[in-house]
Amino acid sequence: MTIEDKIKEQLDSNDILLYMKGTPDFPQCGFSAQTAQVLKQVGVPFSYFNILEDQELRERLKEYSNWPTYPQLYIKGELIGGCDIIMEMFQSGELEKELKAVASD
What we know:
- There is one protein chain.
- By secondary structure, this protein is an alpha+beta fold.
- It has one domain (3-103): Glutaredoxin.
- The chain has helices at residues 3-13, 30-42, 55-65, 83-92, 94-103; strands spanning 16-20, 47-50, 72-75, 78-81.
- A 4-stranded mixed sheet has the order 2-1-3-4.
- Strand 1, helix 2 (30-42) and strand 2 form a beta-alpha-beta unit.
- Helix 1 (3-13) crosses helix 3 (55-65) and helix 2 (30-42) packs parallel to helix 4.
- The longest helix is centred in the middle third of the chain and has 13 residues, at 30-42.
- The chain starts with a helix and ends with a helix.
- The mean pLDDT is 95.
């Protein structure tokens, strides 16, 4: 299985997936911490992958997504964005709306 196959499998298997540094309970950077906290606040279950545990996936995901930084939030396999975008969506109410729509599917 290639790294791209692994990424596709993860995205296909998880409706809401956060690629982050660390875990939601023990984030390893401020942006990952902020994003995980917002997702917890919305109250919809989400999956995560600690990109610090797989250096090859960490590098290839940047190419796959064409997004250079972490965290990266995906909903239904689609890249939503990083911390700044997630925070804007949270403040506008759009994030909660999208996450709850996915959770109710």
